[in-house]
Amino acid sequence: MSESAHRIAHANAAHALILEGVSRHFGALVALDAIDLRIRAGERRAVLGANGAGKTTLFNCITGDFPPTSGRILFYGEEITRFAPHERIRRNPR
Question: What's the whole-model pTM score?
Answer without folding.
Answer: 0.79
